Amino acid sequence: MADETETYDIAREVMNGTRDALMCDNFDAFVRYFRLPQHMETIEGKRLVETKADLRQVFDAVRQYFVRTGITGLDRELIRAEQKAPHLIEYLYETQMISENTLFALPYPTFSMLCKTPDGWQIYYTMYGMMNADQHHAALID
């Protein structure tokens, strides 16, 4: 198993890699961080993303939400990462959405689970804890 520093490094790399891919509108970079099927949840509901096409739909909907609302950046802070088994890492981070250097909404927590695959560490479950964000919920789970 990885030591604590390595576990945090793995979680941080996935957390920042998905952020960078979203903000650069780079689906090919984004998809490599996900194992399918992919389970996603918000406070409003759940979604099972079964195919690459399904993940592309989520990616495009989130990108459209960012463009429509003027989100120009995501500031993510890793709160905790823990390796639960040789093939499993759980981590928690907080996201602040930025619009032209101004906080767009209240920060929200996200909990993710990574599994070790032949392609590296990949997300297979995520729970987004944003509140009062109907359009963001819709982009993720509708």
Please outline the helices and strands.
Blueprint: H1 4-23, H2 27-31, E1 34-42, E2 45-49, H3 52-69, E3 73-85, E4 88-99, E5 102-103, E6 108-117, E7 120-128, H4 134-141
Parallel strand pairs: 1-7
Antiparallel strand pairs: 1-2, 3-4, 4-5, 4-6, 6-7
Helix pairs in contact: 3-4
Question: Outline of this structure?
Answer:
Helix content is 36%, strand content 42%. The chain is an alpha+beta fold and 142 residues long. The N and C termini lie far apart (37 Å).
Write a structural description.
By secondary structure, the protein is an alpha+beta fold. The chain has one domain: Nuclear Transport Factor 2, Chain: A (Roll), CATH 3.10.450.50. The chain has helices at 4-23, 27-31, 52-69, 134-141, and strands spanning 34-42, 45-49, 73-85, 88-99, 102-103, 108-117, 120-128. Strand 6 and strand 7 (120-128) form a beta hairpin.
